[in-house]
Write a structure and sequence with these properties.
Layout lengths: L8 H6 L19 H9 L18 H49 L4 H4 L12
């Protein structure tokens, strides 16, 4: 919303299905808006930010870039954290599968020598002449 004289009706109608709504009747010329700041502090992992128009977040390139960069950084952080969780989950599944099937069965299923799947295998060093 750009000014106190304007009405939010059109924008509210477009956002009728959102769970949490933040509205400002202030100019989008800068990010010094109470509801924008509340929204930026409120959003968490998994939240979806919906705006009727991009200029609702900011009107000048610098402010909009800063807000969007923060969103992108948060997205990358979420992706990295999610991937790490998936790696750990897959690792645990693999360990569990090996324990269930036993080393011999697992090696046979993979057509691999047993020594590849042997844990804590002692190393033998031979002195070369």
């Amino acid at each position: 919303m750009s000014s106190k004289e304007q009405h939010l009706d059109r924008q509210l109608a477009a956002l009728k299905d959102v769970d949490k709504l933040f509205t400002d009747k202030l100019s989008g010329a800068n990010t010094n808006r109470p509801e924008l700041q509340k929204m930026l502090a409120y959003i968490r992992e998994g939240d979806i930010v919906m705006v009727t128009e991009l200029d609702r977040l900011g009107r000048n390139n610098q402010d909009l870039t800063k807000i969007m960069t923060n969103f992108i950084i948060e997205l990358y952080k979420y992706q990295a954290e999610s991937e790490r969780k998936r790696i750990i989950e897959r690792q645990q599944q693999g360990i569990s599968l090996v324990k269930q099937q036993g080393e011999n069965t697992m090696a046979e299923n993979l057509n691999m020598p047993k020594t590849i799947l042997t844990y804590n295998m002692p190393l033998k060093f031979t002195r070369l002449a």
